[in-house]
Design goal:
Helices cover 33% and strands 37% of the residues.
Length: 145
């Protein structure tokens, strides 16, 4: 299991492949479920130029680790990798990457969705959007699943 919060850009596909190569035995899993969330250029009908993701490092890290451990306990999965971006992001930048490995696809899908739903609804991240109309606003709610 790995949980990382990063302030710099990353390639989610490469990160997933690198983790798998280093920590999973070749041939042990039959399924890998990957969710990549990227920044949109629109929200609530407004054009968004950028967004700043803030967090409280220790609290956020602990929460994400708890989500990953809960998924490992609840589902028949082999491993979990969570990488989340903080700082300033721009449209199309990857924000979150969640990868779950399992023997079969069902548990991989279920665990990945479980992690993402908890992350989106409970993880302590705060988002401030810069709109193209030169005003900022805090995001007050997450999009529904």
């Amino acid at each position: 299991m790995k949980v990382e919060i990063r302030e710099s850009q990353y390639d989610p596909w490469q990160e997933a492949c690198d983790y798998e190569k280093e920590f999973l035995r070749k041939g042990e899993h039959g399924a890998k479920s990957i969710f990549i969330g990227s920044m949109r250029d629109m929200n609530e009908g407004d054009s968004v130029a950028s967004m700043v993701l803030e967090h409280y490092p220790e609290m956020t890290q602990k929460h994400l680790e708890t989500i990953a451990k809960d998924a490992l306990d609840k589902f028949d999965i082999l491993d979990v990798f969570i990488l989340h971006r903080v700082g300033e992001v721009f449209p199309s930048d990857p924000i979150v990457c969640v990868v779950v490995w399992s023997i079969h696809r069902g548990p991989a899908y279920d665990a990945n969705r479980f992690i993402m739903e908890d992350l989106k609804s409970k993880a302590p991240f705060w988002k401030k959007e810069t709109l193209t109309k030169e005003k900022d606003r805090w995001v007050e709610k997450n999009t529904p699943a």
